Amino acid sequence: MAYRRRRSSSLLSKLIKTICAIAFVIYAVWYGYSRFFTFNPKQILEESVLKEKTFASQVTEVVSPRHKIKAYLIEDKANPIISISFLFKNAGLASDDANKQGISNVVAAMLVEGSGELDSQAFKEKLENLAIGISFDASVDDFSGSLITTSENQEEAYKLLADSLTKPLFAEKDLQRIKQQAYKSFLMQKEHPNSVLSLELAKFLYGKHPYGRNPLGSIDAISRITEDDLRGFLASHLALNNLIIGAAGDISPEKLGLVLDRIFGALPQNAGINFVRNPEIDFKQGDKNINLPAAAGQNISSFAAPGVSRTDEDFYPLYIANHILGGSGLNSRLSKAAREDKGLTYGIYSYLSLADKSPLIRGGFSSTKDNYNKVVSILNEEWEKFGRKGATKQEVEDAKNYLVSSYNLRFASVANLSEILVYMQKDNLGRDFLQKRNEYVKKVSIEDVNKAARRYFSTENKISVNVGQF
Amino acid sequence: MTVIRKIYAVLLFLSLSISPANAKLFGAENFFLDNGLQVIVIPNHKAPIVKQMLWYKAGAVDEESGRGGTAHLLEHLMFRGTDKVKGSRLNDILEQNGAESNAFTSLDYTAYHQSLDISKLELAMALEADRMQNLKITPKDFELERDIVFQERKQVVENNPAAPFSESYRRLLWQEHPYGRPVSGTSEEIKSLKIEDVKKFYKDYYSPDNAVLILSGDIDTATAKVLAEKYYGKIKPRALASKKEFPKINENLRASLKMELPQINAERLVRTYIAPSYNTDKKEIYNLSVFSKYLGEGETSELYKSLVLDKKLALSVSSDYDFASRSYGRFSISALPAEGVSPEDLNKAIDEELAKAVNGLNIDKVNKTKDKMLAGLVYLQDNPFEAASIVGGMAAVGMTVDDIEKHADNIRKVSYQNVKKAANKLFSSSARIDGILSPKGEK
Lengths: 470, 443
Hints:
heterodimer, A: alpha+beta, Cytochrome Bc1 Complex, Chain A, domain 1, six-stranded mixed sheet, 17 helices, 15% strand, B: alpha+beta, 2 domains, seven-stranded mixed sheet, five-stranded mixed sheet, 42% helix, disordered N terminus
């Protein structure tokens, strides 16, 4: 028995040893294979010498001493550069008087054509010599501006910006030139099928609502604009009560407070802006095909469906849902189905459009005529399937990881920073938004995403306008 | 994955923004691995982000005749998998780790890039190094991507009603020189491409000794050295095809192209001179850069003041000088005639104003122009992503990092006599084309 026991124990120990040896060999082979013959992202990241860093830009709220003008600031002394972005809310194209459509664009152009004692040429010479950038722009909703300067030339920069906002020259010869350039822009706008399409889509969606207007305005209206009109626009549209400011770079809160008074202190207290009602869009009107007189290379499609505003509780779930369906470039479902798997188009995409009065899901693609109907079918199938079944757990995880990991990319330049600060205030995201944003993304569950998918991705509510040969 | 011809922004940016004498523009550091890979590090520590760009010194000019589109199609196939990273897994991994990833092909080079959090950089380096040596091209992927680049050409080139003009314009100017080719290839060329074409191009040109790696962002040079060695150091250089010889340009060429096209609603005018580049006449590029700025860059330039403001013959006019190319450079002037002014009359007026501008050159004007070009150089140190593109675009055509960093110093040294000489030479003895694009049906 003893012998037997010994024998069996020896057998058992041999067996164990053999199993261990086999296990070791299997492990070694697996380890060797995974280490040297497969690509293992997890391992690369674990062994990486470059580790994740905590990075949080501190946002300070500055209030100017005299006029109590507010701004958000990220102080960043990395380089001797200062960027100030600002926006006059609701002073964009949509609120232009009906008989002065396009005036906001003309004002944006004319504000850099001389001010104070400087004529247009002297003004531009000064900007170039001092490497100061001043620009203005009118979007459909707002009128915005930006200043970039080196620390060395900041005092001159603030004076130039203050003068252009409050003492613009608006010389007749410059106005004539801007009008003629506008006229050419109108002609050239009708050349490329993409811009024809975007005009047609705006008309189809919004009809006579100001969002349906040509973004350049009306050529007749522009031709009649006078210096008095421009001054009237300034007085009624650019005021302290619709002004939002973001600043970033080499400037302290105390200094910024003083600068705010200098630049913006002379603006009127209150704006008198035309109210723009919410448009009523008929999302049941289907699709509209427009034959273009000459055959372009492809048919081009632009589509739209109801979306949500930046502050809606569905915003993050829908943002993630859209990322999965059409927002993530080559990895999106639409792109995989129509491009990567079939080669039918160079690109198909969707995005959340956040115009103040009309948040939408929008998207588009272009393809040669022979492929066009196939892409339309794929788009409709994917859209419908996504609305019905939603996303997978993996897709939601991947999308959230992307949004969280890519977040710091937006801090690449001081101009980006000051701009983000403006939009944080416009959308009431809170001063601690930069710290909280990744939490907002992480908090979204697959149920939230799929609820949003069901609600917003229904083929019944998708409309499209298409140009080409049908 | 876009096709670009050149990074014009490079020049615009440099002329916009250039501080104190002898300061480095970017603070770039440069070293080579044993296998020949050039590595340029541009440290910028304000945010924990980085951009990796890998530039191959190979583009559409390296394609064999009739095989147009090969370089660009290969660029697409670089996203279709290797032996280890199969199918679209590269895109999946980069996406899951928050990277913005893309690529572009030009005449002179092809570049692959990822912007991402610094903690994920090694992943991007491992993936980029993997596809430098282990690309797998299956017949199915080849056919799919050929269809996709065909659609891309239709979308990016042919949907643009002015495209037939610009393509003919380049062909006429460059004649047999490969700068006359469209980067995309023609539609017919794309359709006729074979899998062997792209495989051969990969084998011939995608080698560490034919590439420049840029790491721009929150990384120091010592760490970059360790990582570049770790991921790229073991890749063997391939026997490269011999250095590209470009055909000589006939400097007596004077061509003009007039085209009327449907869908075009406004006349425009453009002329181009084949000009010295960094690689054909390095000394001259600083003279011509100053001259271009003086002549037609921005709304305080000579041409803008005379033709737009004083004579009101044009609504816009500008010049553009591109010296960052492997072969010749280009000097272009483009203009939009004012209402009621014929493009032919405007073209004559440009000739007169060019002569006046050259004759009017003096020390004072050249110094003022240089001051504008040298103001605000510090902006170049702001955005690490832009710095990567600017430095990469210059290094990929062979500019040394020393020359890139000393660009401002070299501008500072330019004398008015040499600017005048360079301008006179450009306008008297360079190949030239004048182009006018008009609406169809008008005179």
